[in-house]
Every structure is written in C-alpha cells, then in structure tokens.
Design goal:
The chain is of the alpha/beta class and 261 residues long. The chain is 29% helix and 15% strand.
Length: 261
C-alpha cells in the first residue's frame, strides 16, 4: 500500500511514521508513505493557499485551485488513489472503515487547515471522514490516526498476525478482554486465577466473558451490533443495567478500560 498526505505542514508526519510499529513496517516494505506539500501547487511568490470567505465571517478558507491541481497531479502518477478528505460532515471513522481502507492499493489523505476548505474542493473526494464530534486545528492529526489504524492491519505490520484480529472493535464487535502481566499480585490486586491455570479452554471462556462484560459496562452501544448468542446478549444486558462498579481487578475481569482506542 502507498499512503500519501496533502498538507501545508508535510513535515509533521515523519516523526511519528518513522518509529515503532509503523516505522518497522515501512522499513520492511509493508507500506510506503509520501507527504506532499500543498504549497508546491501555488503560483505566487507568497505560496498562498488561503483567502477570505465570500460573505464575510471569521478566519480564512483554503483556496480550491491548489487543491485541485495537487490532487489531479498526484492522482495522475501511477494507479489512481482513493482520495479521503476530513470534515465534521463526514462519516465517523471506525474499525470497519479502517479494515476496508486497508485493502486499498493507494490512499491519499487531504488535510484541511484554517476555517476549512472551499466547498468545491470536496468534489475531489471519494470519501469524507470525521474522527468525532470535536474540532482539530488541522487535518494532519486525523490523517495520522487513519494511517495508523489502517497500516497496522496490513499483513506483516504486526509481529503477531493475530494481534490485529483479537482486539477491541474487531469482527466480534466487542471491546478486548482485560489483560494482565507480571507480577501476579500487585498492591492487593491479583491476576484472575484462571489466567494462571494453563487451561486454554477456560482461559478462552474467561476472555469471552471479560470482553462481554467490559463492552456492556463501558460501551453498551456496541452490544446491539455484536455477534452474540442469545445467552450472551442477555448477560450483557444484565451487566449494562447494573452499571459500572468501583474499578477493581477481580475474577470477573471487571475494571477500567485499558489499551488504545
């Protein structure tokens, strides 16, 4: 996969994409990345990419001309990219979307700034996404989130190929089960005995129950769309109705929702 960004701050991407899991995956050839500078498609000495909005109002808007020229030039070299813009009006980005985008051969993420883009620029988008109901200073952070979520799903990106399957928001539709490491006892909090038993069937059953409980407690909105048996759905509804108890580590796996979103 080739991931590309179009931004007025192309230098922000490399520090993150050059380290850790994604850095190793790039060096291994799992995916490639290129950051394009929108100002390269301007034609005045100030390399202007913004202007005041018609009708007045606060702030400045990104001009359509450089965006059109840039996207058309970039798309003209090699296979056509799937072009993604970001906007509060866009579809909410989630794990299923990340899984679909991971199948793209080429992904171009166009990052807005200032008060946004001239509305005509969105005619270039194959897809418009939103991370959530809040406002960011620019689209670069949103693009990094999408790249991270998408590229970690590519074959060879993670050391353990099951890591991208057996986690929160996977195909099961549940949050990931509670996890523990050494020491087995810490400040009066003990690892559930079943995880020390070596009985894989019991461990798998406990993890399923833990995932159900955590989802019902912390994200009950996910239960309706999850792949559950009738018995599991009844259990999840019972837990959701009970509500979260004080955070603790116990044999039921109930507790804080740790890990990355």
């Amino acid at each position: 996969m080739l991931c590309e960004t179009l931004s007025v701050f192309p230098e922000v991407f490399e520090p993150y994409l050059g380290v850790s899991v994604l850095g190793r995956a790039r060096r291994a050839g799992v995916f490639d990345f290129c950051a394009h500078d929108l100002r390269d498609w301007t034609h005045d000495r100030h390399r202007t990419v913004d202007d005041a909005p018609f009708g007045g109002g606060q702030g400045m808007l990104m001009k359509p001309e450089p965006i059109f020229e840039a996207v058309e030039d970039i798309a003209g070299s090699g296979p056509r990219p799937h072009v993604v813009f970001f906007s509060p009006c866009g579809r909410r980005f989630d794990q299923r979307l990340a899984e679909r985008l991971s199948g793209m051969e080429r992904l171009l993420l166009v990052c807005g700034r200032y008060e946004g883009m001239d509305e005509r620029a969105y005619a270039l988008a194959d897809e418009v996404l939103s991370l959530g109901d809040y406002v960011l200073t620019g689209g670069e952070l949103a693009a990094l989130v999408v790249i991270d979520a998408v590229c970690r799903l590519l074959p060879g990106a993670l050391g353990d190929e099951m890591s991208a399957v057996d986690e929160s928001f996977s195909s099961a539709g549940l949050l990931e089960y509670a996890q523990y490491t050494r020491p087995a006892s810490f400040r009066g909090m003990d690892v559930p005995e079943v995880l020390l038993s070596g009985d894989h069937a019991r461990v798998d059953a406990w993890r399923r129950r833990s995932a159900l409980e955590r989802t019902a407690l912390w994200r009950p909105d996910l239960i309706e769309g999850a792949d559950l048996s009738d018995e599991e759905r009844a259990f999840a509804r019972e837990i959701a109705a009970r509500g979260p108890s004080p955070r603790r580590a116990d044999a039921e796996g109930e507790g804080a929702c740790h890990g990355q979103a």
